[in-house]
């Protein structure tokens, strides 16, 4: 089980030191990313999913942010112990990342060919011609029509979907072991979303890569993820296979998230879409006890006092809920 | 709206980069049309076009001065002192009988040189310091910006005078003086752009593929500041020309018999009542040149970035 883990974080804590106090953006996260699998990281804005990704990349904005505790093991090597230059070597070669906004994540003044070839220039000793050939090959692989003629194009000459493909080509050109995709489809329209997700899954198989997919879109999770981590206020509140999470959600937060998805035919016209009351607690002083308790419809008095541990629910399914061990709630 | 501004700046930078690359690489239709946009909007601007024509004329005069002028700018002829402007001597002659038109035309060379070289140095220096300051931030940023504040707070003519007095009045030292007083404004503008640029996702994307900070500054941030730098450069030129004229007028710039316009005005002012053309015509040359460069610079700014106007 542990042998096929590519990346593991153990009790990862990334804190931000602000003028108002310490923001515990990531507060003890344990992740296991398996080889050749898509691991989803789900949660509301500000729950710490992006900071988790940045921690793995070694790109936590300093000096305000810092990894204060825990280990990040990539194939057994602890990334938190690496020097900045060692991390720079690693980025783009072993770990790559794609971002939410294809409009802003490409440099407007550099050609597509240059940007896609940049990781090769940085991390390999290939010559100009070889790099060019590899770039064309990669652009072809991500489904850009007439790749050779696109080398000299600037990002503004491409559509949003094409730009995201270029981003993926740039991230994947060194065939990294791990690809972190931070909301890669949020800015795209629905038909393109599906294509991009399909492309990522396809590349994962071909290039032997693992993917961490950060999203708040549960539809995307259901479609592509193998394992899911649901995060809330800096902590993982539930984890399991995609089937565990969708078929037998154990944490009230996960259930509420699933109920908040608008579905066709599920809700009748005029019925209000379900939404979770309240807002994410301030990360400066999270509530005592379970962090979700103030918004939880199932909370009992002791939920506000005791901090829950991860409760095993069979297989790789865990939930951080005091009541999860009661054998689930009544479905209502 | 800030995001609109960022977007528009991006467009402008694309345009400039495209303009720079269009000569070398084969571009697609999209790239050419952007360059076309700039040229079109420049042509639409009448004052800018006039400015450009005058500038082209000045460059022509400067380059072909020996072919255009029938006289030698340094040769004295004491029989021909203070001749009025005529067909033989378009601008008349000065107190040593030198042809004033010839001297003004040769002066174009000095003015253009002084306009271009130190402006280029000042804007490059300011650009590099600005990028560095904005990107690195913290203490570095603080000290570079305080230095810029000092330079800007100090009357620049006075600063230039001090430099010229200490280093000596030569053309080369004018370059140094003008570069020293000119970088601060450019550094400030560029720094403010970098502050927003460095938060853009493509910078993070560059980091995510392992690009080092120095390379990010040079290859990713600096090119995005090019439109601002180009505008700063063109608008710096007339200022520099005025500066040199002022320094030469005050006697710490070019030294006689160099036909610098400022110097011509300075020497001519003694005869303002007996032979007014000796001072006035070089003065007109300064006026026309500075105005032309300003027209051109403004037009260039508006054409490159239509959103900079407001």
CATH topology type of chain B: MetI-like fold
What is the general shape of chain A? globular
Strand content of chain B: under 5%
- Report the mean per-residue pLDDT of chain A as an integer: 86
Any key phrases for this structure?
heterodimer, A: 332 residues, alpha/beta, 8-stranded mixed beta sheet, B: 310 residues, mainly alpha, MetI-like fold, elongated, disordered N terminus
Give your account of this protein's structure.
The complex is a heterodimer of chains A (332) and B (310). With 332 residues, chain A is of the alpha/beta class. Chain A has two domains: 5-94 and 176-326, Rossmann fold, CATH 3.40.50; 95-175. Chain A contains ten helices and twelve strands. Chain A has helices at residues 49-57, 84-90, 112-123, 128-141, 147-150, 160-172, 190-207, 218-224, 242-247, 252-259; strands at 5-18, 21-34, 38-42, 65-74, 77-78, 95-98, 178-182, 210-215, 227-232, 235-241, 311-312, 318-319. In chain A, strands 6-7-8-3-9-10-12-11 form an eight-stranded mixed sheet, sandwiched between helices. In chain A, strands 2-1-4-5 form a four-stranded antiparallel sheet. The longest helix of chain A is centred in the middle third of the chain and has 18 residues, at 190-207. Chain A is globular. The model of chain A has no long low-confidence stretch (mean pLDDT 86). Chain B has 310 residues and is mostly helical. Chain B has one domain: MetI-like (MetI-like fold, Orthogonal Bundle), CATH 1.10.3720.10. Chain B is built from twelve helices and no strands. Chain B has helices at 2-22, 29-44, 46-63, 65-68, 100-136, 138-153, 156-167, 171-197, 201-208, 213-249, 261-268, 277-304. Residues 1-31 of chain B have low confidence and may be disordered. The chains are: A alpha/beta (332), B mainly alpha (310). The interface between A and B is medium-sized, with 34 and 30 residues.
